[in-house]
Amino acid sequence: MHKLLKRLGLFIAAPFFVVILYLAAAFIGGIIPASKNETVNSTQSKTKRIFLTANALHADIAIPVDDAIREKFTFLQDAGFPLDNPGLEYLIIGWGSREFYTNTAQYSDMEFGTIWRAATGDAAALHIAPGGDISKSEGVMPIIMTQAGFDEMIDFMLGSLQLANQKPDLIEGATFGYGDLFYEAKGRFNIFNPCNVWVSQALNTAGVSAGIWTPTTYSLRLHHKLYIETK
């Protein structure tokens, strides 16, 4: 009986140990810098300013909109995105689980099925939303980079899109209702390759320091505080 109770206790405690190990690894991964693309930082001064926006679970990258960005993202207009709206200042872009991302506008929308599918493996989606002046919004993290780094990051983002008939593959009807759009994306989402890891990959492509493994927004914020130049 004693052995049975001991085994039962270990069975119940195991998930808690797994969560603790996962969070500890995320903490360490946020401290250790990953290798980054150094070629984009060789001679240019850092003139491009972007922002990370993050809630408790998910981070996005906000890129400033100018004529060059409008030209690169012109495909958005075909789906009704307000690309030419004079109030548009940023594109807010994120990658994530297709099932969870497209069905969870806020925490109250979370369901066990979508959480389970995201944790165990799901197709990916890219979310693009319009934004105004977010520079003074609570919790945003500013980052500066070279123009060459910025261009590389944009290419990385566009390269994350799945194509259909040589055009980004729009997920019809998927929106949170404020001009945002979802597109099919490359890659697979799971607990070891979640949305916040994609953010670090984008930053590394731009020559910006990012943690070696950043599955949580806490690990992103930690690395930002320790290493990233913001002015």
Features:
single chain; 231 residues; alpha+beta; two-stranded antiparallel sheet; 7 helices
Verbal overview:
The chain has 7 helices and 8 strands; from the N terminus they run αββαβααββαβββαα. The mean pLDDT is 88. With 231 residues, the protein is α+β, with helices and mostly antiparallel strands. The protein has one domain (2-227). Helix 1 runs parallel beside helix 7 (217-227) and helix 5 (147-159) crosses helix 6 (195-205). The strands form 2 sheets. A 6-stranded antiparallel β-sheet has the order 5-1-2-3-4-8.
Strand order of the largest sheet: 5-1-2-3-4-8
Main beta-sheet strand count, sense and barrel state: 6 strands, antiparallel
The H-and-E topology, N to C, reads as HEEHEHHEEHEEEHH
Q: Helical region count?
A: 7
Distance between the termini: 64 Å
Overall mean confidence score, pLDDT = 88
Low-confidence stretches: none
Residue fraction in strands: 15-25%
Structural class category: alpha+beta
What share of residues is helical?
25-40%
Which of globular, elongated, flat, extended, rod-shaped describes the shape? globular
- Rounded to an integer, what's the Rg over CA atoms? 19 Å
Q: Write down how many β-strands occur, each being a DSSP E stretch of 2 or more residues.
A: 8
When the domains are counted, the total is: 1
